[in-house]
Automatic annotation (TrEMBL):
Database matches in Gene3D superfamilies: 3.30.420.40
Actin-like protein N-terminal domain sequence ranges: 6-106
Origin species: Blautia parvula
Domain Actin homologue MreB-like C-terminal, first and last residues per copy: 124-238
Highest taxon of the lineage: Bacteria
Protein name (Swiss-Prot/TrEMBL): Plasmid segregation actin-type ATPase ParM
InterPro entries: ALP_N, ATPase_NBD, MreB-like_C
Pfam family, one: MreB-like_C
Length: 270
C-alpha cells in the first residue's frame, strides 16, 4: 500500500511516472488527488493528527495568475468538507479551511531578498518541467508586462535527448539516467551515450538563452536568477562565453513551495 491513495472507492498509486501535459490543471482530478496525497505526507512528516484543518499554499505562473486563480482556488476548495480518504491504509479526515494563491518564482525570491538588494532590475528565469517562465523585477516589484512563458521545459530536453541516443547508439536510456548525466552525477552508461546527453544538454541551454533574448531580455545587461528543476542543468552547462550578467542559481526544487508556506506563516502570525 506504499504511496497508495484510496478516495471515493478508487485506488491511485502516486509517484509512478509523470503527468501528461495539460494547459489547465483543473481539467481533470489528477492534481487534486496528488494534493490529497501531499497533505497526508505533510501530516506524517510533521507527526500531526490525521483529523485536522489545513490551509493550502499553492502557486500559478505569473503569466496566467490573474486568469486562472479563481478557478484554481475553487478546484482545491471543494464543497465536500471534510475530505475523507485513505493513504497508505491510514484514514485521514481533512477540512481545507482556505487556499492561498501566490505567483511562482516571485514567492521563492521572498526567501532570498539578498538577490534583489541594491539591484534596480533583476530577471527571474524559472525552468520547470514543461515551461520556462520569465519575468523582470524592477525595484524588487514584478513587472507584469514582462511576463513570458516559453514551452521549453526540461521534459522536452529529456525526450529529445532520449530519441537522439536511441537513434545514434540503439540504446534506450531512461529519463532518470539522462537527468543524472545532465546534472553531472555518477551513472553507469556507455561513453558514447553519455557524450550525446552532455552535447544535447549544452544545445538545450543555448536554446533557452536564445529564446530569452528573443523575448526581449538582455541577459548580458541585467542580473539573472535561475531556479526550478532545470537550474542545475543550466549551471553545469553555461559558460563564460555566454556572458550572463551576475547569474544566481537556486537549485532547491522545493523553493517555490517553501516560499508559499513562509508567506502564509507570516500572514497567519499577523
Amino acid at each position: 500500500m506504499q504511496n497508495v491513495l484510496q478516495y471515493q472507492g478508487k485506488y491511485y498509486v502516486c509517484g509512478t511516472g509523470r503527468q501528461t501535459l495539460v494547459k489547465n490543471k483543473t481539467s481533470n482530478d489528477n492534481y487534486y488527488l496528488l494534493t490529497l496525497a501531499a497533505i497526508a505526507e505533510e501530516i506524517k512528516h510533521r507527526k500531526a493528527e490525521r483529523k485536522t484543518e489545513v490551509i493550502l499554499a499553492v502557486g500559478l505562473p505569473l503569466s496566467s495568475f490573474e486568469r486562472e486563480k479563481q478557478g484554481f482556488r475553487e478546484y482545491l476548495l471543494r464543497k465536500e468538507q471534510p475530505v475523507r480518504f485513505l493513504y497508505e491504509s491510514e484514514l485521514y479526515e481533512i477540512t481545507i479551511k482556505d487556499v492561498k494563491l501566490f505567483p511562482q518564482g516571485y514567492s521563492a525570491l521572498a526567501l532570498h531578498p539578498e538577490y534583489l538588494k541594491n539591484e534596480p532590475s533583476v530577471l527571474l528565469v524559472d525552468i520547470g518541467g514543461w515551461t520556462v517562465d520569465l519575468m523582470r523585477l524592477d525595484n524588487a516589484v514584478p513587472n507584469a508586462a514582462t511576463c513570458r512563458s516559453l514551452e521549453l521545459g526540461v521534459i522536452r530536453c529529456i525526450d529529445e535527448t532520449a530519441e537522439q541516443v536511441r537513434r545514434n547508439t540503439g540504446l534506450s536510456v531512461t529519463e532518470t539516467q539522462i537527468e543524472r548525466v545532465l546534472r553531472g552525477e555518477s551513472c553507469s552508461m556507455a561513453e558514447e551515450a553519455r557524450r550525446i546527453i552532455q552535447e544535447n544538454g549544452r544545445k538545450y541551454i543555448e536554446r533557452i538563452l536564445s529564446a530569452v533574448t528573443e523575448s526581449g531580455f538582455d541577459l548580458r545587461a541585467v542580473p539573472s536568477v535561475f531556479m526550478g528543476g532545470g537550474s542545475a542543468i543550466l549551471k553545469r552547462h553555461v559558460t563564460t562565453q555566454d556572458a550572463i550578467c551576475r547569474p544566481v542559481f537556486i537549485e532547491d526544487v522545493h523553493a517555490n513551495a517553501t516560499g508559499y508556506e513562509r508567506i502564509v506563516q507570516q500572514m497567519w502570525a499577523r
